Amino acid sequence: MIPRTWLLAGLLLLQTGLALASTTVAFINPGKADEPYWLGASQAMQAAARSLDLQLEVLYAERDPARALQLGREIAARAQRPDYVVLVNEKGTLVENARVLGAVGIKTFAAFSGLLPQERERWAPRKGLPLLLGSLEPHAQDAGYLTARALIQQALATRQGKGRLQMLAIGGDRSTPVSIQRNEGLRRALAEQPEVELVQQAFADWRRDLAAETMAGMLTRHPQARLLWTGSDLMALGAMEAIEAAGQSPARDWHIASINTSKAAMQAVLDGRLKALAGGHFLAGAWALVMLYDYEHGRDFADEGLMLERPMFMLFDKAAAQRMLARFGGEMPALDFRPYSKALNPRLKQYRFDTETLLKARP
């Protein structure tokens, strides 16, 4: 008879082996560890990892492209490497990181921002970059269009007098796919409404301090402007600081729109400082983990395409902002991503990344 202590030791070793065998994923987060949007994105991915029994490691590049590339090299040099690495094409870092990681056999996946149009022919997933499995991007043009359209409609409904309304815009940067597409959405909304004129657009590199500085100069150059569109909530908050420093009220004197779902942005909706806000795309990384889980379990997402772009944005009015703060104002709650997995739901034929349903669902 096998001694009981041997049985217990064998069971412990088996359990340890199973734990070590769990699928491991690293995420090179391009943002800062204290940046609300990118922190929320990481927390959503952690919730998805717990739901799907994945081991997730998050590494922050602190808005430094050189650091993002260094993190890729460090992962490639490890003795114990992750099974997958999720990358973001922030400032053109995707191709180089995918090459470095692929050279040592690590599979990669792009979330939030994928290949640039000029990169796709040479560096296509599973071809030019054999171990870049694919990409999942929010339909970023939706964010620009929804917020700009809502902003314009509200401004026209409450304007006094005649004549074209003047709009200012502060975008993130000139090269990141997400920024480019949000700006395209803004211009699409403007093309539908000739009574609004975009008198200046500047870029603030997604930074609150630079947005405040940029807005101060724009106020001097365009004193008649009363509409402001921004590509992110941090930049909107920075612009509001400049507006207040000029003796104006963001809530009373301006119509301001922005993107992202930080607590500060939600509070700005409730306070009337933000007239239009869209968000939900912070879940893109979490949805990417669903796809990687399925790939790992024999359900390749390739039948839907390798470079997927999906609607993920919703507009937040005051009621929606209040619900968001009530549920997500503290720590990230448990979220159940299992119903969205094809491997766990064999009858599911197409991914339905329903942001609004997931955010409203109770665990």
Give structural attributes.
Rossmann fold, six-stranded parallel beta sheet, 363 residues, globular, alpha/beta
Description:
This protein is an alpha/beta fold and 363 residues long. The chain has two domains: 21-138 and 282-313 and 332-360, Response regulator (Rossmann fold, 3-Layer(aba) Sandwich); 141-279, Response regulator (Rossmann fold). It is built from 13 helices and twelve strands. α4 links the parallel β3 and β4. The longest helix is centred in the middle third of the chain and has 19 residues, at 140-158.
Mean pLDDT: 91
Number of domains: 2
Summed up, the helix count is 13
| Class from secondary-structure proportions | alpha/beta
Précis, in short:
It contains 13 helices and 12 strands. With 363 residues, it is an alpha/beta fold. It has a 6-stranded parallel β-sheet with strand order 2-1-3-4-5-11, sandwiched between helices. Strands 7-6-8-9-10-12 form a 6-stranded mixed β-sheet, with helices on both faces.
What is the topological layout?
Layout: H1 4-20, E1 24-29, H2 36-52, E2 55-60, H3 65-77, E3 84-87, H4 94-103, E4 107-111, E5 132-138, H5 140-158, E6 165-171, H6 177-192, E7 196-203, H7 208-221, E8 227-230, H8 233-245, H9 250-253, E9 255-259, H10 263-271, E10 276-279, H11 284-296, E11 307-310, E12 314-315, H12 318-328, H13 355-360
